[in-house]
Amino acid sequence: MAGKQVNPTRMELTRLKKKLATARRGHKLLKDKRDELMRQFLDMVRENKALREKVEQGILQANGNFVLARASMENETLNEALMAPRQEVSLESSTRNIMSVDIPVFEYKTRTADPNDIYCYGYASTSADLDDAVKSLADILPDMLELAQKEKACQLMASEIEKTRRRVNALEHVVIPQTQSQIKYIVMKLDENERSTQIRLMKVKDMMLEQAHHYTEKQVNE
Amino acid sequence: MYKIAVLGDRDSIYGFAALGLETFPVLSDEEAVETLKKIAEDGYAVIYITENLLSALDKEVEKYREQILPAIIPIPGVSGNTGAGIANVKKLVEQAVGSDIIFNN
């Protein structure tokens, strides 16, 4: 794996060595980040799963109650009863930072002081089943908001983990080996240059001696 | 100050109106796409959509996945639980871990 061609100079060598050190450091940091994110994500996703099962169960039950309520009431009466909701839910959203991932934190407020103030109709024309149905839905609402928060957090963390994992892999399998092989190439090339310079100098010395004294170094040694 | 929206077929969502959530009943998939586009930009922090709409809205939902707000959360409709919500969570695990390590019981 030669990668990109580099100039075999000392400056380039220094640069590459620095680059390798940075890449190693970055790799270690990102790896730690990935591991920690993963740990938190797994906790979060387990909670998410449990919460989702609970919410789905709750909504299913509420829907069943609504079917009952519809069965025992005129459609028009039902529409009329739910036409003007008294309650209004609004959210305050802030963000929390988990390992550089911003996740939303919801805080919900109801318009009237009593969150149980959900029956926006007179009791005269509606059936008791409707009360049950609305109540069962109201009970599940806090869990639904919690679920929204958790699930969004999981989504954001999952994509962050994916990104981090790619970066870790790119550093581990591409950037670091490539830089290493480039460094090796430069070192070899520089060594080779040095050897060839040395040989040339020795040769030149031989030639100069021969010219000056008309003998070769070989004969002196003999 | 953010609001909460519920998007789906009328039968599945009219109950939420009583709780003070804003409901957006839609009849067709196209209408759902339009409505989602509109309300996603309109100060809603949480948008619940019924599971049977999820497949039609996949492309739109994907767009908001990486943003902090809005959170688009599938809920089961009146026709019952299709398992799409749990499948979504499962997909997240696969995206993050590479394989599903939580749901393969």
Task: Describe the protein in words.
The complex is a heterodimer of chains A (222) and B (105). Chain A has 4 helices and 2 strands. With 222 residues, chain A is mainly alpha-helical. The mean pLDDT of chain A is 85. Chain B is an alpha/beta fold and 105 residues long. Chain B is built from 5 helices and 4 strands; from the N terminus they run βαβαβααβα. Chain B has helices at residues 10-19, 29-40, 51-54, 58-64, 84-97; strands spanning 3-8, 22-25, 44-50, 71-75. In chain B, helix 1 links the parallel strand 1 (3-8) and strand 2 (22-25). The longest helix of chain B has 14 residues, at 84-97. The model of chain B has no long low-confidence stretch (mean pLDDT 83). The chains are: A mainly alpha (222), B alpha/beta (105). At the A-B interface, helix 1, strand 1, strand 2 and helix 3 of A face helix 1, strand 3, strand 4 and helix 5 of B.
Percent helix of chain A, as a range, is: over 70%
Mean pLDDT score of chain B, rounded? 83
Tell me roughly what share of residues is in helical segments of chain B: 40-55%
Strand content of chain B: 15-25%
Summed over residues and divided by their number, the pLDDT of chain A gives a mean of 85
